[in-house]
Amino acid sequence: MILAGVTQRGKPGYPWLVFLHGFSGDCHEWQTVGASLDDYPRLYLDLPGHGGSAETGVAGFAEMSQLLMHTLISYNILNYWLMGYSLGGRIAMFHACQHPAGLDGVIVEGGHPGLQDIDARQARQISDRRWASRFRSEPLEAVFADWYQQPVFASLTEEQRKVLIALRSRNNGPRLADMLEATSLAVQPDLRPALTARDFPFYFLYGERDEKFKALAAELNATRHAIPHAGHNAHRENPDAVAASLAQILRHRIKDTL
């Protein structure tokens, strides 16, 4: 079993860029940003329960990491950078902390490193179970209309919310619910210790209007990039600035290896 994905060619000798979307996204989510990085071969994946991987499921982060590893092997990807947004960022951080072969670095946009106390985990579990129940039983348009009212999405305009609600409502509700529960923050380990002791380059991007993840970024042993004129969904709200940050990071890290 491997994840569905879309590949785009790059120049010989350049490492692969492997893109992981956020919850309810798909392999198209990063392609606008990735198009400007055309020197690099790129793989845009559909996470379990999403897009072409809608019928693929995982039981948790360890199984997700194994599935990602098998997928990369199937594409003969030997050296790669992981780039993940939100849920994809959390998966990228967990995977990187397993010390996989071939990983050159990690770039995360708005990914949570993990909850640190039991009360926060219990509250998140209750919340995610409620959302999962709604995804399984209600029209997706109604669920996403409420989903995008959460404080983390406060910077979105009404038009941006409408676009996202229409786009995300193409998903399969029960499959989304399964993935939401399997990869809930309630079951994700706190990755801060492992990220502090890491042996790979680690960069963290966040929208300058995203106060929650600006604060989380300050807790991490990572090189931080604030994306102007953007909130939590920075790669959609300001794709040019995100692409410029990625290009800068990659030029700096690999210029001496080519």
From TrEMBL:
<keyword id="KW-0474">Menaquinone biosynthesis</keyword>
<dbReference type="GO" id="GO:0070205">
    <property type="term" value="F:2-succinyl-6-hydroxy-2,4-cyclohexadiene-1-carboxylate synthase activity"/>
</dbReference>
<comment type="subunit">
    <text>Monomer.</text>
</comment>
<dbReference type="InterPro" id="IPR029058">
    <property type="entry name" value="AB_hydrolase_fold"/>
</dbReference>
<comment type="pathway">
    <text>Quinol/quinone metabolism; menaquinone biosynthesis.</text>
</comment>
<keyword id="KW-0456">Lyase</keyword>
<comment type="pathway">
    <text>Quinol/quinone metabolism; 1,4-dihydroxy-2-naphthoate biosynthesis; 1,4-dihydroxy-2-naphthoate from chorismate: step 3/7.</text>
</comment>
<dbReference type="InterPro" id="IPR000073">
    <property type="entry name" value="AB_hydrolase_1"/>
</dbReference>
<dbReference type="Pfam" id="PF12697">
    <property type="entry name" value="Abhydrolase_6"/>
</dbReference>
<feature type="domain" description="AB hydrolase-1">
    <location>
        <begin position="17"/>
        <end position="244"/>
    </location>
</feature>
<comment type="function">
    <text>Catalyzes a proton abstraction reaction that results in 2,5-elimination of pyruvate from 2-succinyl-5-enolpyruvyl-6-hydroxy-3-cyclohexene-1-carboxylate (SEPHCHC) and the formation of 2-succinyl-6-hydroxy-2,4-cyclohexadiene-1-carboxylate (SHCHC).</text>
</comment>
<comment type="similarity">
    <text>Belongs to the AB hydrolase superfamily. MenH family.</text>
</comment>
<protein>
    <recommendedName>
        <fullName>2-succinyl-6-hydroxy-2,4-cyclohexadiene-1-carboxylate synthase</fullName>
        <ecNumber>4.2.99.20</ecNumber>
    </recommendedName>
</protein>
<dbReference type="InterPro" id="IPR022485">
    <property type="entry name" value="SHCHC_synthase_MenH"/>
</dbReference>
